[in-house]
Design brief:
The chain is mainly α. It has 2 domains: 19-129; 133-226. It contains 8 helices and no strands. Helix 1 (3-11) crosses helix 8 (184-225). The longest helix is centred in the last third of the chain and has 42 residues, at 184-225.
Length: 226
């Protein structure tokens, strides 16, 4: 690789982007938006007593708040806070811890149950934003690491495509309160899409760690050459 090519690679946005942080930012943003949708639904139900501490089919969640209105307002605020924190501060020292606290509060306020798994994954990955696992750094895994790093974009795009399909099915065809018996096909497509998206997200995380190590090594080579 020539000196000029190293300089071009250093200034390339796509090659220099932090794969792990990008994944966490998108994950947190989607989680915040999904929570806000629950909150808006709860606000529209009005100042009525909420089904506290039990699953409520009218909202697809449970809440510690006494009314749907108070629950919805809290959820919208927490969903927005989660998005802002994820985009602007998740990479900082205490970023993952605060992300987890906001996610737990969003869940307790009535932000939904389905996205809990995704919150936990995003939190776990956020703790490794600048520190990919050491076991990827050995010379013996270099070829596998390069192949996985090259597949990152396919896993990344495919994962969110299937998640989009699953979420769209949930919002449009299987809203809270829809019975499985009368929406069997829609539920199966929704769950299958979410499951495929979840599997591809795991592969996105693994390949993202590999890509991040490759990115860090390029940066070291560039620094040594200058």
């Amino acid at each position: 690789m020539t000196h000029s090519n190293l300089g071009q690679e250093k200034t390339s946005f796509w090659k220099d982007i932090n794969s792990t942080r990008l994944f966490v930012v998108i994950q947190g943003t989607i989680g915040g938006l999904a929570g806000m949708l629950h909150g808006i639904n709860e606000i529209l139900l009005g100042n009525k007593p909420a089904a506290k501490l039990v699953f409520d089919y009218a909202t697809g969640a449970f809440t510690i708040f006494p009314t749907y209105l108070s629950s919805g307002i809290a959820v919208v605020c927490l969903g927005l806070a989660l998005m802002v924190w994820t985009i602007g501060f998740i990479h900082r020292k205490n970023g993952p811890a605060i992300f987890l606290v906001i996610s737990i509060l969003l869940f307790l306020a009535g932000g939904g149950i389905a996205q809990v798994a995704f919150f936990l994954i995003a939190w776990g990955v956020s703790t490794r934003i600048n520190q990919p696992p050491d076991w990827w750094k050995s010379d013996s895994s270099r070829n596998s690491r390069k192949r996985l790093a090259g597949a990152w974009l396919a896993f990344f795009s495919g994962g969110y495509l299937f998640l989009f399909i699953g979420i769209a099915m949930w919002l449009i065809f299987t809203p809270p309160g829809a019975l499985f018996q009368t929406h069997r096909s829609e539920y199966l497509i929704c769950w299958a899409s979410l499951l495929m998206g979840f599997i591809l997200q795991i592969l996105t995380i693994i390949s993202g760690f590999a890509r991040e190590i490759e990115r860090q090594q390029r940066r070291k080579i560039y620094a040594l050459s200058h």
